[in-house]
Task: inverse folding
C-alpha cells in the first residue's frame, strides 16, 4: 500500500509496452480480441475504433470522494474478509466492454485474467467504474483502494506483475480501519500558456505505441530548422545525424514552444518532456541523451499517464 507515483506505476510490462489509441499523429491502439467464454468474467466486446478523447478535463481521482479524507494511517492493515470483490470484478468486466482495445483477450492468466495493454487506462477505468457504483476508489501505486464509508477501506491487487488482470483469492489484500484514503497531495497548478487546468496522474506505463511520437519528431526537425543556434550542427552523435544541444533547458523549452503550434501543452520535468492535448492522459518523451546529443527514434517515447500528470 504505497503512495501513488509515476515510478511505482511504471513497474515494467517489459517487452510488452503498453498503450495507444489514435489521436494527434500516432498509430492506432490495437483492438482487443473477444475474451474466451466461461469463468467469472464472460465479456464479448464489439470491436470498435479507438475513440478520440474529448477536451473535458479528467477528474482529480481520490479527491472527488464525497466521504472526504479517510482518518486512518494506512499502516498495520490486516488481511480479513473481502467486502467488495464482486463489485471490483464487475468494474473490470464493464471496462472490458467499454474499452476492449486496452486488453488482449487471447493472452490470459486464468478466467478473465486478460493481458492489460495500458496500465493507466485500466486503473483509471476501474476507478471510474467503481465510482459509478457509488464507491470511493483510488489507486495507491500498487493496489486499488475502495470504501463506502470512512469506517474502513479494502485493498485489491488487480494487476499481476506479468501485466494481466488479477482475479481470485489473491486479489483482495487487506482491510484498513479506519479508511486510509484519500490523502491530500494537491493538483499541480496550470502550466503557463496552457489552456487546460492542472491534473494529477493515477498510473503510468509504456504502451504498444505512441499517439504523439510523429509530432515530437516533427518538432525536433522544426526546432533545428528555425533555431539552429541552439545546436552544434557540426558535432553529431556517432553513426547518426543527431546534433549536440548547446543548452539542454533551452532545447526542451524550444520544443515545447514549437509543439504549441500544433495545440499541445508541454512541460519539462527535468528528465522528460510531458505533452498533452487533453487532461485524460499525457505522454512522456526522453529527447536528450546524457551525452548532450539530441535523442531520436521510437525509443524517445517512454510512457503514458492517466489522467495527465501536469
Result:
Amino acid at each position: 500500500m504505497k503512495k501513488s507515483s509515476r515510478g511505482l506505476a511504471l513497474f515494467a510490462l517489459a517487452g510488452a509496452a503498453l498503450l495507444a489509441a489514435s489521436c494527434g499523429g500516432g498509430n492506432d491502439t490495437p483492438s482487443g480480441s473477444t475474451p474466451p467464454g466461461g469463468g467469472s468474467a464472460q465479456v464479448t466486446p464489439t470491436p470498435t475504433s479507438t475513440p478520440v478523447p474529448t477536451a473535458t478535463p479528467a477528474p482529480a481521482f481520490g479527491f472527488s470522494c464525497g466521504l472526504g479524507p479517510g482518518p486512518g494511517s494506512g499502516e498495520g492493515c490486516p488481511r480479513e474478509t473481502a467486502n467488495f470483490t464482486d463489485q471490483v470484478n464487475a468494474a473490470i468486466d464493464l471496462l472490458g466492454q467499454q474499452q476492449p482495445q486496452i486488453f488482449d483477450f487471447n493472452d490470459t492468466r486464468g478466467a478473465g485474467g486478460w493481458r492489460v495493454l495500458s496500465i493507466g487506462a485500466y486503473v483509471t477505468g476501474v476507478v471510474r467504474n467503481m465510482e459509478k457504483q457509488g464507491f470511493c476508489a483510488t489507486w495507491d501505486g500498487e493496489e486499488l483502494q475502495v470504501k463506502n464509508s470512512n469506517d474502513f477501506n479494502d485493498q485489491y491487487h488487480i494487476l499481476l506483475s506479468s501485466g494481466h488482470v488479477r482475479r481470485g483469492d489473491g486479489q483482495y489484500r487487506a482491510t484498513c480501519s479506519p479508511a486510509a484514503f484519500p490523502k491530500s497531495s494537491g493538483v499541480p497548478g496550470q502550466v503557463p500558456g496552457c489552456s487546460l487546468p492542472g491534473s494529477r496522474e493515477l498510473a503510468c506505463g509504456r504502451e504498444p505505441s505512441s499517439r504523439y511520437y510523429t509530432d515530437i519528431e516533427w518538432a525536433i526537425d522544426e526546432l533545428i530548422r528555425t533555431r539552429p543556434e541552439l545546436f552544434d550542427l557540426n558535432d553529431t552523435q556517432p553513426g547518426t545525424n543527431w546534433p549536440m544541444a548547446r543548452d539542454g533547458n533551452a532545447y526542451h523549452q524550444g520544443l515545447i514552444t514549437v509543439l504549441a503550434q500544433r495545440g499541445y501543452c508541454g512541460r519539462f520535468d527535468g528528465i522528460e518532456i510531458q505533452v498533452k492535448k487533453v487532461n485524460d492522459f499525457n505522454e512522456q518523451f526522453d529527447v536528450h541523451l546524457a551525452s548532450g546529443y539530441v535523442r531520436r527514434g521510437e525509443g524517445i517515447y517512454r510512457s503514458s499517464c492517466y489522467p495527465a500528470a501536469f
